[in-house]
Amino acid sequence: MSAAQTRLATSPMLLRLAEEHATGALLRDQGVLYLSQGHVVHAESPAAPGIDVLLTTGGMLPPQGWQDALSQAGPRHAVGQHLIDSGRVAAGELELCHLGALFDAAFFVLEPPGGATRFRYGVAHWLGQIHPVPAMTVARETRRRRELLDSVWPDSVIDTAPVVPRAPAPGQMIGDRQREVLRLADGSRTPTEIAWALGRPAFHTLLEVRRLAAAGLVHTPRPPEPVDPPVALWCVQPSEDPDIALLRRVRDALEASP
Predict the structure, then answer these.
(1) Residue 166, SS3?
(2) Beta-bridge partners for 39
(3) Is residue 255 very low, low, confident or very high in pLDDT (cuts 50, 70, 90)?
(4) What confidence score (pLDDT) does residue 60 get?
(5) Are 51 and 38 in contact (CB under 8 A)?
């Protein structure tokens, strides 16, 4: 994808801030991107499990270990470095987890491209810098993920609605990851809620749900289409005024007289 195409698909303010090498927080309806010298250093969205969920739910870090790091290093904006220095998480593991959380949340922050956007200069995130990513790279990855979702299953309604499992066809194979998603697809959870329950990136869960939809293994209950109430026959075929009917009969009788 060319730079021009990326610009059309991404917040113009993000790309302008990247060119300015700005530092601060880019706020949109679906979350926040944190920039340092024009690079994206972190992202948060209520639609995506944060790095704390990814670290603790997967067992990489005990919940208490996360809370200790947050209380000790959060005010210094150095939680990530504290985790590494204390030996709680290896540097490579933290970097991979951080990038997964960053791209996951950025997808929801930047989609859809329109909407209100504002920037607060000088704001830093408590996690600190782990692996800054060029803004154009984040924009390209967001566009790639949207195109991937649409190529698998083009109906985006399933991304935000509760999903219901369908019985597999005879002999139809289901992978372990899909089986875990189906276990939680009870008609009340949305794909995002399933991602939180599993402690996985939300985008990857969306992708699995769309694959399941394409395979006929889940569906989204849709409300019935509104139906106009039946119209009474007397409304469609109003009766004649009795006086007019009488006059017509009199007229016909007179015309028939010799």
Answers:
(1) coil
(2) 36, 134
(3) low
(4) 87
(5) no
Amino acid identity at 227: V
Amino acid at 166: R
Closest CA to 8 of 203, 146, 206: 146
Q: Give the chain's length.
A: 258
Q: What is the pLDDT of residues 147-185, one digit of tens each?
A: 999 999 999 999 999 999 999 999 999 999 999 999 999
Calpha distance 151→108 (Å, rounded): 18
Q: How far apart are CA 247 and CA 13, in angstroms?
A: 78
Output the six-digit token pair for 184.
């939680």
Rounded (10°) CA dihedral 18, 19, 23, 26:
-40
Helix (H) or strand (E) holding 240: none
Q: Please identify which residue in the block is written with the tokens 């692996």.
A: 131
> The tokens of 45 are what?
């969205």
- 3-class secondary structure, 189: coil
Residue with tokens 């994808």: 1
- Is 229 a residue whose pLDDT tops 70? no
Q: Contact 47/25 with Cβ under 8 angstroms? A: no
